[in-house]
Design brief:
Layout lengths: L4 E3 L3 H8 L10 E4 L4 E8 L2 E9 L17 E3 L10 H6 L1 E6 L1 E5 L14 E6 L5 E11 L5 E11 L10 E3 L1 E2 L4 H5 L6 H5 L10 E6 L21 E2 L8
Parallel strand pairs: 4-10, 5-10
Antiparallel strand pairs: 1-2, 1-7, 3-4, 3-6, 6-9, 7-8, 8-13, 9-10, 9-12, 10-11, 13-14
């Protein structure tokens, strides 16, 4: 599960990484939470476009959002079988724009009480942005109003991430952006084959304080480390 993420890099750097045509000037966001607008990239007419969508996917068949669960994540393993996501996997794939995400490690109970859950910021070691695999849907209400909605696709955790959680966002490699975003010529099975756990060496886990627990804490201090970052052990080279 991915329930919080961040996008804090300068707009120019993000645009260069994702190569979309717009030049949005957006502020850094340190604590993006479900139901909030999230930045994403979609392909239309052979070009990539930046847009915002509500984090919480609404399939077209939903009559009343109040009676439907909030879908912030979709499991890569079952996308093709789930009625909620099947059509979006074929026709409305996108990239969620991020440069980090958060997860909480389960802690053993203390004296019969639930222990605080330590929080971590997960980011690329090189500080680059990340493109999470996403699905989007424009939901129409009975009066004709429209809401662009989206969710993050998740995969099983890699070995580094498994230290704190069993799931992680599917991070699409930059060289595969064009394949994932090509809803016209790339079929669902080919696109789904891209959804794999990220390489362990690409990421680090940074322990942070409890400020992330409140969605209204959206400031640099939210990401302040309280310990050493955890990275994958170096791979031994042949002698």
């Amino acid at each position: 599960m991915c329930g919080r993420f961040a996008m804090t890099l300068p707009p120019e750097a993000v645009r260069a990484f994702f190569a979309y045509v717009e030049q949005p000037n957006f502020p850094p966001r340190y604590n993006i939470a479900p139901t909030q607008p999230i930045p994403l990239v979609a392909a239309r007419g052979g070009e990539r476009h930046f847009m915002l969508a509500r984090w919480g996917f609404l399939p077209g068949f939903v009559k009343d959002p109040k009676d439907f669960p909030l879908l912030i994540n979709a499991r890569a393993e079952t996308l093709a079988e789930k009625p909620s996501f099947r059509a979006a996997l074929r026709r409305r794939r996108c990239l969620i724009v991020a440069d980090g995400f958060y997860e909480w490690r389960r802690a053993a109970p203390q004296a019969g009480r639930a222990a605080p859950r330590p929080a971590y910021l997960i980011r690329r070691v090189d500080g680059a942005p990340m493109g999470f695999a996403g699905l989007m849907e424009t939901w129409s209400d009975p009066s004709g109003g429209e809401i662009d909605t989206a969710c993050i696709v998740t995969t099983p955790a890699n070995r580094l991430m498994a230290l704190i959680h069993d799931r992680m966002p599917a991070i699409v490699l930059p060289e595969a952006f064009a394949i994932w975003l090509d809803n016209e010529r790339v079929d669902a099975s080919t696109a789904r084959a891209l959804l794999k756990p990220a390489p362990e060496a690409a990421l680090e886990l940074v322990p942070i304080g409890p400020a992330i627990n409140r969605a209204d804490n959206d400031a640099p201090a939210t990401q302040a480390p309280i310990g050493e970052a955890i990275r994958a052990a170096p791979t031994a080279k042949p002698g």
